[in-house]
Amino acid sequence: MGKKQKVILPPDLPPEISDDEIEVSDEDLQFVKENRDYAGFVSRLDTQSITKHVTRVADVNEDALEAIYEKRLKKKSALQKEDEEKNKVHVDPVDALPVKTLDGKLYYRTVAKTSKGEDENEAGEDEKDGDVDKSLVKLTKAEKRAKVKKSRKEAKKLGKEVDQPEEAEQAPQAAVLAKVKEDLTAEEAFESKKCKLAELGIALLSNPEANITSMKEILQIAKDDNPSISKLGLLSLLAVFKDIIPGYRIRLPTEKEQEMKVSKEVKKMRFYESTLLSAYKAYLQRLLAAEKKPLFQQVVVRCICNLLDAVPHFNCRESLLEVVVRNLGSADDVVRKLCCSTVRSLFTNEGKHGGEATVEAVRLIAAHVKANNCQLHPDFIEVLMSLTFDEDLRKPKATPEVDKKVKYKKFYKRKIPEEPSQQQENKRKMSKKELMSKTREEVAADYKAVSFAPDVEEKRRMQSETLSAVFETYFRVLKQTMLSIAASSETFTGSNTSASDPHPLLAPCLNGLGKFSHLIDLDYIGDLMNYLKKIAGGGSSYYSSSQKHVEHLTVSERLRCCIVAFKVMRNNLDALNVDLQDFFVQLYNLILEYRPGRDQGEVLVEALKIMLCDDRQHDMQKAAAFVKRLATFSLSICSAEAMAALVTLKNLLMRNVKCRNLLENDAGGGSVSGSISIYHPYATDPNLSGALASVLWELNLLSKHYHPSISTMITSISGMNTANNQVYHAILSPQQAFTDLSLERETFQPKSDIRKLNSKRKRGSASSTLSGIESTSDTSIDENEVSKKLAKHFIILRDIKENERLRGELDRTTLSLQLYEKYKKQKKAGEPKTKRKRAKIVD
Amino acid sequence: MRPLDEAETTAVFEKLYKFTGNNLKNIVENPSHEGPDPNPGRYCFRLHKNKVYYVSESLVKRATNIARANLVSLGVCIGKFTHSSKFHLTIQALSLVSANARHKVWLKPTSEMSFLYGNHVLKGGLGRITDTIAPGDGVVVFSMSDVPLGFGVAAKSTQDCRKLDPNGIVVLHQADIGEYLRMEDEL
């Protein structure tokens, strides 16, 4: 009871008194002795547990307390286990479910115990397991099996005699072993081959002339059955060839030449070259053969592209080019990208091959386009964009040469008649001059032969060939598009809408035409413009009245046509100022068809810039019509497009003073409005819309635009007036404005204070704006009112939308009902029974 | 005064079609707001003393009150039939044609006067020209500030104009507003 001394906590303990000190009275003793039964409990008192109960942990805090409790529990369970082990109580496996103790541990009662016991047994004895097994009567089957396995393993390890059943299982293991061995050998072979490849390659690279024969060995390796080995072989060959291929084209010696006596070095050189060439050819054959296999395709294409990129001047370029061009339209993205970049680099680095490969590639592309009827990947044509044509070569150099020739001719001509008269006098001089010129010519010829400077004539010829192939391709695409449009508009099947882009090549083709427009022959321009006009019309010009008309081309494509037409015109016709009326009509109508999500804003903006801003003169009616339409348009689209439209509008207004009548507040336009006295918003021809009779009321709405830059733009526009004829300067192009705002669009969030800012700005410029109403309302404006009005506005908008939706649903249901009615009528004739049934269903 | 007969109508419309193309229907369907009638009438063509007039229907009704011999003119005279029954547009038709013109040519300020004296339009005087002009098309001639000056027949297509030398004729003269002074008596 020594512990008790420390304890202070409840239950209150008797004061500390040593046993000795306790005085037990005689009477008590007597009583105990007399009634031993009563006192029996004392002896049976579990002092320990009492002390435990009472030992409430004087100087232990709460965490420790828990730990203590846990410890206690563990102890208890351990005790229990021991007990159980002692008793060897085997529980039936059925109720051998694990027990989760309070501390979260799982205890598998019997199983754990028995296995434990067995393990111990096993550790002790190895071969006498059987006996032990027998002794353990209550072993489960699984345990038995486990045991057998274990023993077998041990047996195997020890290499002891194997009995019958084991042998049966040995056979597959042997097979596995063999396989492993095989794998090992294969791996070794792989490694060794790799090493060999590396050795051969290094040898070749270090001294190609001496080791040229080892080329064949690598080729042999490249023909290996193992795909990875042969891939490696191909790639290493590529590296080797890239390095050792000479900077010239090898020409094998003719028989005559071979018969001639040559020095040792030349012989050696010839041998080297012929081996190299034959090896290269074999390699190419191997590549071409492997290219068909899908497994090899990427590697092979990479090899070919690299080769073509590195040594476009070398022999057998044609087959390489053929593969690359064919793969330009490959479905595999990687392959296509590789080929595209190769062809591009071929076009840009013409110095490597002197332009011949370019001609060939362009011709091949043209042939492919022709063969596939223009149904190819857009990349096919896209690569042509990177072609460069040396204009200096085309014009200025050509003319001086011709001039020189002419001059020479003139010179000679002049001289020849002079000669007879002056022959006598100047014979000496002449001969001297002739001598001089002769020697000069000789020197020039020699120089030409020696220097590898590309011949100008030759180069020009090649360029013109390239150009003709390129334009042939472009015109073919255009023609095909037009034909398909014509065909589809003839049949006029309303169902086959062009969901998928049926003219994949059109967009890159138009881009290319725009880029090379300055190189087109004047004779072609008429036809080209006709084509473009038809395509821009989308075949719709004759069906403009029918609403069911199917759009064959997207708005962007048609806009692009307009742009190309303008570019072509501008680049070619400096002398003649042609007014492309039809394209203006197209643009005028396309503006309405533009949808911000569907179509490319950049194209629209480019069209606006090229057609409306850059063109110097417009007639008044047209300009006014465009001003009006752009204002209407900018009401209904996102801020970026609206901004571009407004910049264009401002530009138009600046240059057409009379159009500023639109800014005045009286409708009718006065004397300038022309013969058409009313504005027709739906007119298709800008000249007939009568826009001058209208008023730009859109500006007033736009001045309340949520985007601050638009509203400032509007105030500056409405600040212009007809009275003063001052010159306004264009600040920025519509394209710039568009990109600015479309970049900003992601970050821009209309803030509440913008409205205030706007109203302030409005107040500031109220004097210059036209409407008096606005200025009066502005003074009393406050935020609440604005928000109320906005809320009202949006509620109305939502109602309208809801209304539209409901109406659409109604239409749909009525339509389906009608259809159903029709169907019923049809059925009625045939089967009266089913009709009745269906009538019931309808009810 | 009488409406045109079949042959005359085709002659007039063919001539107008050369200048206006599909816009011809705007001329025919143009509603007129003349007269006190609440619903707008149309314009129609009337022949009077070999001249063709473009008149509103309400005016035609009122003109019936006047004896044929006494009637000098009504509406807008747009042309006349020659003795060989061919139709010629006169300069008065300019307002009608220029509003609906399909092919236009703009003259440089320097060559305006030359045209107004009755000369053909040369390439050198060309300020601007619409695309898609074919030889034989009717062309309306404007000044650079969009004032209609007259009309004529194209001698060359737009494509051919490019290669033309500056003295080549682009538009053959038919009528110009100078005629109002020069031929005051005839009109």
From TrEMBL, chain A:
Domain CCAAT-binding factor: 559-713
Secreted is among the record's keywords: no
Main subcellular localisation: nucleus
InterPro entries: ARM-type_fold, CCAAT-binding_factor, Noc3_N, Nucleolar_cplx-assoc_3
Entry GO CC: nucleolus
Name of one Pfam family that matches: NOC3p
Region annotation (Disordered) ranges: 115-134, 148-173, 417-436, 752-782, 822-843
This protein's name: Nucleolar complex protein 3 homolog
UniProtKB/TrEMBL annotation, chain B:
Keywords, ordered alphabetically: Nucleus, Ribosome biogenesis, RNA-binding
Alphabetized CDD domains for the sequence: Nip7_N_euk, PUA_Nip7-like
MF-aspect GO terms: RNA binding
Main location: nucleus
PUA domain boundaries: 103-178
Pfam families, per the entry: pre-PUA_NIP7, UPF0113
PROSITE patterns: PUA
Record bears the keyword RNA-binding: yes
Signal peptide from the UniProt entry: none
GO CC, one annotated term: nucleolus
Intracellular or extracellular location(s): Nucleus, Nucleolus
GO BP annotations listed: ribosome assembly
PANTHER family: CYCLIN-DEPENDENT KINASES REGULATORY SUBUNIT/60S RIBOSOME SUBUNIT BIOGENESIS PROTEIN NIP7
Subunit comment: Interacts with pre-ribosome complex.
Family: Belongs to the NIP7 family.
Task performed by this protein: Required for proper 27S pre-rRNA processing and 60S ribosome subunit assembly.
Name listed for the protein in its UniProt record: 60S ribosome subunit biogenesis protein NIP7 homolog
Organism: Dipteronia dyeriana
